[in-house]
Amino acid sequence: MVASENRSVTVVTATELAKNLSDILNRVKYQDERFLIQRNGDTVAALEPPAVEKVVNFGEFLDAMRNGPRPDDQFADDLEAVIAELPKIDFADYPERPDESILAS
């Protein structure tokens, strides 16, 4: 075994992987193990659990918005400065409604 990122990594040959695929996949899934697969002494692949992204429900989101950090007093001025730097759009160049022929296609 080789230490990596404070987690152990087991080195197996491609032949060992082929013979023990089900067992190794179960160890990856249920025991959070990681494997390096070698062929002819060269590491050719790594097998590890997928990264898991935390899903936040709406209640947790609202909690974070209510209890999270608030913008400082300079925030509004900074936001106005950013908006002032944006290119101006002349909406007169755009029709109020799209041409009906565009909608028909």
Count every beta strand, where a strand is a DSSP E run of 2 or more residues: 4
SSE order: EEHHEEHHH
Question: Quick check: average pLDDT?
Answer: 86
What is the radius of gyration?
28 Å
CATH architecture assignment name of the largest domain: 3-Layer(aba) Sandwich
Distance between the termini: 63 Å
Structural class: alpha+beta
Main sheet: strand order: 1-2-3-4
Which regions contain 5 or more consecutive residues with pLDDT less than 50? 1-5
| Number of discrete helical segments | 5
Question: Describe the biggest sheet?
Answer: 4 strands, mixed
CATH topology of the largest domain: YefM-like fold
| Overall body shape | elongated
- The CATH class of the largest domain turns out to be Alpha Beta
Q: Count the domains.
A: 2
% residues in beta strands: 15-25%
- Percentage of residues assigned to helices: 40-55%
General description of the model:
The structure is a single chain. By secondary structure, the chain is an alpha+beta fold. It has 2 domains: 2-47, YefM-like fold, CATH 3.40.1620; 58-86, no CATH class. It is 41% helix and 21% strand. It contains 5 helices and 4 strands; from the N terminus they run E-E-H-H-E-E-H-H-H. The chain has helices at 14-19, 21-31, 58-67, 75-85, 100-104; strands at 2-4, 7-13, 34-39, 42-47. The protein has a 4-stranded mixed beta sheet. A hairpin with a 2-residue loop joins strand 3 (34-39) and strand 4 (42-47). The protein is elongated, with a radius of gyration of 28 Å.
